[in-house]
Structures are given as C-alpha cells and as structure tokens.
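Researcher: I'd like a candidate sequence for this fold, 274 residues long. If you have to choose between options at a position, lean toward the conservative one.
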C-alpha cells in the first residue's frame, strides 16, 4: 500500500515536493505576500470593507444623492398606488358594493372602485369592539337615530355620537349635525345583498375581535400586520411596526401585493351570491 504521494504517480513523472500551508483562519499572524504588493492583506480586508460601505452610506445621504433617493422612493410609491388602483377598479368597478368599514379605508376602496358611497361608515371610525357589534347587528343599528355625546365631543375636539350602544368617532365632520345628516343619507343606500365588511387591527384590536369578525356570514377582509389564522386575514407587511397596519387610507400602496385581484373577484362573487 503506497504511503507517499509520488508512489501514486507514473514512474516517468519526476518526484515533486508539495507543501500544504495551514488554513488562513488558523494562522492569523502570518504575513502574506499579497500585502507586499500594495494590496490589502487578509487582516486588512474587513476594516477596509467597513470603511467602503460607510462611505457608500455617507454618499447616499449627501446633499447631491439624497434628493435622487427621495425621488426613487416617491416613484416606487406612485407605481404601487397605480397598481392598487388598477386592481381594485378592475375587480370592484360596477359591482356597487356597500362597504362597511371600521375606519376611512372603506371610503378609499369605494373611491378607487369609482363608486359612490353606499355605506354610512365614511369619514369616521369605530373602536374595535363597537365595530364588531355593529357588524353583527347591522340591520337593527342603521335604523336608529344618532345621539350626540356633547361632553365626549368637547374632550375629543371633534364630534362623537352614539348609535344605540355603538360609539362613532365622526372625525372628519365639522359638526354633529353634518355627520348625522350624512349618516342617515348614506344608510339609505345600503344594499344588504352586496355587503363587504372591512376591518383592520388598529386601535388596540385583539384576537377576540378578530374571531368574532371572522364569524360574519358575509364577504369580509381583515387587514393585519400579523399573519392571523383566519380566512378573512390579509397580511400587510409593515416594516415600521409589527403591532398593527399603518393608516391604509393614506398609505394604500401597501395593499399591494397582499390584496390580489383574484381575491377581490372571489369576494365580489360571494357577495352577489349572499
């Protein structure tokens, strides 16, 4: 049995001596010839890479590059918003949904679909428990007249009303009278055969609210920053916070790619069958 390397080779080949150095990470003190040629040695690479990427960051934050970076982010947002508009308009236009929403997102969806407001839940928001209760008793609640909570309105700085035991934050109305008039007018437009319920995990919503919302026997969308185990959940990846989604009325570009045209078409078909 040969024990030396040259015994494996043909006899016509000259004998050679092979020197095998230890691995680099086991011999950190060795001085390498590459450093003598004016190039960085093994021990110099990491600091130089750190300086390199540090220089890149400084350059990106410089006065000349920062405006370009800002414009690039702006173009990305505009592109995603254009995709969202196309998806929602293509799936919901002409369907005439009554979107019952926990906040202003419903009015954004109606606007993107090119439809009029067929729901009273516009320019206001609900606390999570009140919204779930309102959804389960929708037919009864929309028949009630609103009551003005004057003390709560003075403390909040905007009109607050009650529809039965459900609290309404009329955030975007200048007075209770304007909010009550718009509520009554739009409540008469509800089509109970084409309902779409929209809920988000904002305002301290918890799993009990999500579970009760998911039990609604109607088409529904639950937008959450977490992947919840409910069929209605639409997972919105929010890099700034994992506790809840951002205000999707203003940042509706984040609806894409989570909210797909296929899912909206399935919901629209379910709404018509319901």
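Model: Candidate sequence:
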């Amino acid at each position: 049995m040969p024990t030396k390397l040259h015994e494996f080779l043909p006899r016509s080949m000259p004998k050679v001596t092979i020197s095998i150095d230890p691995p680099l990470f086991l011999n950190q003190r060795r001085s390498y010839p590459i450093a003598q040629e004016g190039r960085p040695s093994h021990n110099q690479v990491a600091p130089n890479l750190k300086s390199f990427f540090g220089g890149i960051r400084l350059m990106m934050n410089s006065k000349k590059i920062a405006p370009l970076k800002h414009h690039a982010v702006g173009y990305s947002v505009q592109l995603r918003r254009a995709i969202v508009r196309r998806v929602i308009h293509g799936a919901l236009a002409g369907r005439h949904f009554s979107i019952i929403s926990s906040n202003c997102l419903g009015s954004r969806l109606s606007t993107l679909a090119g439809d009029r407001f067929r729901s009273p839940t516009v320019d206001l928001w609900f606390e999570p428990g009140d919204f779930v209760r309102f959804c389960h008793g929708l037919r009864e609640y929309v028949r009630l007249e609103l009551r003005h909570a004057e003390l709560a309105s003075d403390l909040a700085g905007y009109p607050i009303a009650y529809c039965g035991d459900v609290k309404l934050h009329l955030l975007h109305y200048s007075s209770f009278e304007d909010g009550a008039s718009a509520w009554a007018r739009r409540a008469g437009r509800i089509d109970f055969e084409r309902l779409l319920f929209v809920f988000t995990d904002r305002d301290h919503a918890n799993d009990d609210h999500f579970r009760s919302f998911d039990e609604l026997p109607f088409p529904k969308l639950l937008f959450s920053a977490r992947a919840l185990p409910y069929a209605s959940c639409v997972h919105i990846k929010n890099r700034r916070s994992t506790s809840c989604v951002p205000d999707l009325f203003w940042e509706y570009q984040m609806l894409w790619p989570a909210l797909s045209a296929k899912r909206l078409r399935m919901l629209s078909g379910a709404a018509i069958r319901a």
